[in-house]
Design goal:
The complex is a heterodimer of chains A (619) and B (85). With 619 residues, chain A is mainly α. Chain A has 30 helices and 2 strands. A two-stranded antiparallel sheet of chain A has the order 1-2. In chain B, 75% of the residues lie in helices and 5% in strands. Chain B has a two-stranded antiparallel sheet. The chains are: A mainly alpha (619), B mainly alpha (85).
């Protein structure tokens, strides 16, 4: 494939054909289902077909050039970069777990939605256009050049590594889960199948290959998310366009909550009934806002952590290094958020529809308030009970299923709702392919962010600055495989629980990177010593607080679980790390000598869209 | 004041305006969640609507607006990049 001007101009045609081809594939699968092909085989074909296409795109995008490998040759058009960023951003967790989170958490949980979108305003105004102008290959490349010196570069690579690695194991875990369910293989094997798929997409072409596969993955995942939402909405009478029309359904859920009652189960009861781990029940209101200042603070602090964390995550920032211009970088952030919005605004709608389908006794799908023996004879309840994804506990022994007696894993909302609402299996196969696309695209971006920082910033800039192009690219690829394998190894032993929540990645990134990046552009007086002190103080204080506040860690270290300060729990530890980073950085900068004239000139050049980049095309 | 300084002063003001709007839609309105939820929009309780969809949409619109405005500032000061291709 010719990757120069011709290819770029033909992109709309190429991806148009691809989308059409995918639609035809869905139709063929639908016909196959009618013709009697088993559900399992349809699932296998969906995942296998899409993964092979990504691998093919990855192979076509192979390269031997440094700037193509690191920044896709800086020629990715605005809208396509927006799609690639959206796929990079929306992880397997977003795809399968977000709607489930809203389903169980209601209003309180939706702070994540605001956080994971609002952060892009910070990206667009404070960072993306300036980092693009700077001309860096990686995020630590900016910090290392702006502040000068190997130590500050190494410190920023350290933060990047902690934040991104926390995230990537969860993504490889998700690819493994989906691959194992769709292909009917053990989880441990699924993880390695997932890893090989990820590596084929990224190894030969680096950022260029990841870019073009991510665009393809976005198209699959957005179709796979939106089609069932619209279909279910129309099927259960929610309206043609659910986003604008579910007001009555939301109100109805409020009535049903009143009718059934929101009861909190005691831990002892749940243990006695043998509820499997990770399963949840509805105990909070769907649209109601909890009262009190503490509830408001918890909402706001979570939103702040996710927003500031978004603006500090290297795998997202580096997507804006690939646009042809500064102007395009700004617009590209806007397009990214538009494509993200399409999925994120649909998650609460899916949660609403799914909840109503189960709770409303007037709908044929309703199960709450029905007799337990009837519910247990429903096919999907049996299937998902068998794999411990749903569970029924008759606490009051009346033989009727109460709201607090129905337990379910969050993922089931996305994975099983099509089946619950009686959609054909082809839709469930499509959802598997979408989940796989979401998990793979994020894992790709993260593995590449880590291995690029190690190969460019540690190997080339610090260890061996004389390395030639061929050697640099070999090192980059070897590191890519090592990082991927390390992530898969941890995932395959199910050690991910020790790494905790993906929210931690945001907290780590905001603790160590947000202020050094922002002040690097917006405050000329920021010095090297200030940056080093800030990064270390931020990440170490955040980390220390995490050990203090996360029960599993604090019990192991201190023998007791600590009460969070001011409601700042383990999901929000960036609220400690980032302010510590800011104060330290400002104080130390003011105590040390002002940056020299050359550095000040560098900052001036960064702020203006025209003129030469600070770092050359090849560096 | 040199052209460069004037450009940066304007860019900075524009950044502040954008961040004020951002803070309004991401933080300020959710300080009054319970109060807002007594009102309704499209039939949804207002605070629920904003966190599920409204603020998200506001961010998207804001980003296109802010990029266009910044392009105008670039042009005024002669820092507009030539269209590539």
């Amino acid at each position: 494939m010719d990757m120069k001007g011709g290819f770029i101009k033909n992109l709309p045609k190429v991806y148009g054909l691809y989308t059409g081809g995918f639609a035809v594939f869905i139709l063929i699968m639908a016909i196959a289902e009618q013709a009697g092909v088993s559900a399992k085989n349809i699932g296998v074909m969906f995942v296998a077909f899409t993964v092979l296409i990504y691998a093919f795109i990855g192979y076509l995008s192979r390269t031997v050039q440094v700037d193509a490998y690191y920044v896709a040759g800086r020629q990715v058009p605005t809208v396509f970069n927006g799609m690639a960023t959206a796929a990079d951003w929306m992880s397997g967790a977003s795809f399968v777990a977000l709607a489930g989170g809203v389903y169980f958490g209601g209003y309180t949980y939706m702070a994540f939605l605001v956080g994971w979108t609002g952060g892009y305003v910070l990206v667009a105004t404070l960072l993306a256009p300036y980092l693009r102008k700077f001309g860096c290959y990686t995020v630590p490349d900016f910090i290392g050049t702006r502040y000068g010196g190997n130590l500050v570069r190494a410190c920023s690579v350290f933060v990047l590594f902690i934040a991104s690695f926390t995230y990537v194991t969860a993504q490889i875990n998700a690819t493994g889960t989906i691959a194992s369910r769709a292909l009917g293989i053990p989880f441990e094997l699924g993880v390695w199948v997932g890893l090989i798929s990820i590596l084929i997409c990224s190894m030969l072409g680096g950022m260029r290959a990841v870019t073009w596969t991510q665009v393809a993955q976005y198209i699959v995942l957005i179709i796979a998310y939106l089609l069932p939402v619209f279909w279910i909405s129309n099927k259960i009478g929610g309206g043609v366009f659910p986003h604008l029309m579910l007001g009555d359904e939301v109100a109805r859920l409020g009535e049903l909550e009143q009718q059934f009652g929101l009861v909190k189960n005691s831990a002892a009861d749940m243990k006695a009934a043998g509820v499997p781990g990770g399963l949840k029940y509805i105990s909070g209101p769907h649209s109601g806002v909890p009262d009190g200042g503490m509830a408001v603070w918890k909402y706001l602090s979570l939103a702040i952590c996710m927003m500031v964390g978004t603006a500090s995550l290297p795998h997202i920032l580096m997507r804006y290094f690939t646009t042809p211009s500064v102007k395009a970088a700004r617009k590209s952030v806007a397009w990214s958020l538009f494509f993200i919005f399409l999925l994120y605004s649909s998650a609460p709608m899916l949660a609403t529809l799914s909840k109503l389908a189960l709770m409303d006794p007037n709908l044929p799908t309703g199960i709450i308030g029905k007799s337990i023996s009837d519910v247990q004879s429903i096919a999907w309840v049996q299937n998902w009970s068998a794999v411990k994804q749903v569970f029924i506990a008759d606490f009051n022994g009346d033989g009727i299923l109460q709201l607090n007696e129905w337990f379910m894993r969050g993922d089931v909302v996305v994975l099983a709702t099509p089946e619950v609402a009686g959609l054909p299996f082809v839709i469930s196969g499509l959802v598997f392919a979408g989940g796989m696309a979401a998990a793979m695209s994020t894992a790709d971006g993260l593995v590449l962010a880590i291995s690029n920082a190690l190969s460019h910033d540690i190997y080339y800039k610090i260890v061996n600055p004389k390395a030639d192009t061929a050697k640099r690219l070999i090192v980059a690829r070897v590191l890519l495989v090592i990082i991927g394998a390390a992530g898969a190894y941890i995932a395959s032993f199910r050690l991910t629980s020790i790494l905790g929540s993906v929210a931690w990645a945001f907290d780590f990134a905001m603790s160590g990177l947000f202020f050094p990046l922002v002040l690097g552009v917006w405050w000329k007086r920021a010095t090297r010593q200030g940056a080093i002190a800030g990064i270390l103080a931020g990440i170490l204080s955040g980390w220390a607080y995490l050990l203090y506040v996360y029960p599993k860690f604090s019990v192991a270290i201190w023998g007791v679980a600590h009460e969070p300060w001011l409601g700042i729990d383990h999901l929000r530890f960036g609220m400690i790390g980032a302010p510590v980073c800011l104060v330290t950085m400002v104080v130390v900068s003011l105590m040390t000598k002002e940056p020299d004239a050359a550095t000040q000139k560098m900052v001036d050049d960064t702020r203006i869209p025209t003129g030469k980049a600070v770092l050359g095309k090849q560096h | 004041m040199s052209n460069k300084d004037a450009y940066w002063a304007k860019t900075k003001n524009h950044m502040i305006v954008t961040l004020v709007l951002w803070a309004f839609f991401s933080l300020v309105i959710f300080m009054f969640g319970s109060e807002l939820n007594t009102m309704s929009f499209l039939g949804y309780p207002l605070a629920y609507y904003m966190t599920a969809q409204g603020s998200l949409l506001a961010f998207v619109v804001m980003l296109f607006w802010t990029a266009n405005k910044q392009e105008k500032i670039d042009e005024e000061h002669g820092y507009s990049e030539r269209e590539e291709d």
